[in-house]
Please model this.
Amino acid sequence: MFMPRLLLGSLIMGICTVVAGCTASPQPPPPTAAALPARPVPVDGTYNGTTQLVRGDPISCGTQDSFTLRVANKAFHYVLNQPQVTWQPQRSFDVVIASDGAFQTQSGTAYIRGQLSQGHMQGEITGDACGYQFEADNTGTW
Model:
């Protein structure tokens, strides 16, 4: 009585071992090459671009203007002319570009902020009466 049960158990155990041994075990993923660290992209140079009005009166703010920024040592100076604002006809910004390409600075309630990556700059400039989005591309050194 015990013998057939023991044989049956051994037979089941043997079949399970064979089946488990024959199944394909998952293969480990192939080794990936270590990503090379990103080389710093030079940001200095002349950036030519356009601003597009997103807030304010088109007659007094203008709808689109071209502009040039000269970046040196990861910094630039920008003056926002706003003649429609009699108490503050200009706002000046001294901008420093972080190592990740981000920049932001404020002058009173006005500000400029954006991102620079691979020779392309984009962001927003908000003055006292008008707001703009801008894009500019590096055209080389100056």
Remarks:
- Residues 45-138 form a domain with the Porin fold (CATH 2.40.160.90).
- The longest strand covers residues 45-55.
- The helical segments are 2-22, 58-61.
- Strands lie at 45-55, 64-71, 75-81, 90-96, 102-107, 110-117, 120-126, 131-138.
